[in-house]
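PROTEIN DESIGN WORKSHEET
SECTION A - STRUCTURE
LENGTH: 85
TOKENS:
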């Protein structure tokens, strides 16, 4: 009967020694990650003004593509005509 008591005391002593030897470091502080924000809304202009501006930008972009395409076609046409001569 004293054998299990001795084993229990040895186990308690070993566990206590182990817990004292273990160092618990404080957890790393959490970093807060800000989500990507949408660009700020311009409240000075009305929605119609914003739509007009977007349409104007789109039209200007399309006009630039048309102009570049025509210039490219003209340059290719001149190159083909020059190669036939």
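SECTION B - SEQUENCE
RESIDUE ASSIGNMENT:
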């Amino acid at each position: 009967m004293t054998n299990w008591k001795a084993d229990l005391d040895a186990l308690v002593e070993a566990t206590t020694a182990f817990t004292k030897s273990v160092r618990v470091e404080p957890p790393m502080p959490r970093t807060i990650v800000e989500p990507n924000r949408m660009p700020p809304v311009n409240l000075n202009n009305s929605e119609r003004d914003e739509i007009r501006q977007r349409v104007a930008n789109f039209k200007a972009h399309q006009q630039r593509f048309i102009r570049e395409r025509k210039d490219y076609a003209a340059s290719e046409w001149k190159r083909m005509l020059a190669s036939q001569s």
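SECTION C - NOTES
The two ends are 117 Å apart (CA to CA).
The CA atoms of residues 71 and 77 lie 10 Å apart.
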